[in-house]
Amino acid sequence: MIALSSPESRRRGGRPSGRDRILREALKLFGARGYSDVSMRDVASAAGVTKAALYYHFADKQDLFTTVSLRQIEAILAALDKVAAAGGTLEDRLTRLAVVGLERLQADVYQPHFQAHEHLDEAHHRQLHAAMDRLQEPVIRCFEEAGPPDPRLAPRAAASLLGGVLASLIFFTGEDARDDPLPSEPRARAELAVRLFVHGYDRLARGQAGEVPS
Description:
Helices cover 71% and strands 0% of the residues. It is built from ten helices and no strands. It is elongated, with a radius of gyration of 21 Å.
C-alpha cells in the first residue's frame, strides 16, 4: 500500500509547495521579461501547475506581481536587519546597509516599483509603498542608537537623506557617469557615500559648522 504524503510533509521534505513554486517562477519571469510580457498562462506553465491552481492562490496578475515584489522587499529587509545588528560604529553599520542597498535595491525594489506605477491599481501600489517605507527602519535604528540624544537632524530625516544619496549612486551609471566616474564596486561606492554623509550628519546633528574631515 502506497502512503500518500500531505502537503505539509512534502514541504518538510524539501519539496516546495505549489504556491512557492509559482512565486519562484513568477519572480524569474517578471525579472527577465517585465510585467507586460508575462501572462498568467506563462507562470502556470513554468511552475508546472494548472491555471485553476494559479488562480486558487492569486486573484490576478496584479496580485501575483505584488506578492512577488513584497517577498523580495521582505528578503531585503531581513538582510538589512542582519547587517545592522552586527555592531560597530555608525559608519560601519551604515556602510554595511549601503552595500546591501546598492547590490539589491535597483533590481528587487526600484524596477518593480516603476512597473507598479504603470500597471498596478492604487490598492496594490499602496501595499508596495508601505513595504518600501519599512526598508528605512534599520537605518533609522542605527541613527537612533548612535545619538546624539537630541539631534537637530532627526534619525528619520537622516535616514531619508542618506537614502536619497544612495539612490542617486544606484542610478548614476553609464552615460551619466562617463565624465565624472565614481567607484564601480558597490562597497567602494557605499564607503564613499556613507563617509561623506556621516561626517556631515554628525556636524549638523550637533549644530556644528566646518568642513568634512579628511
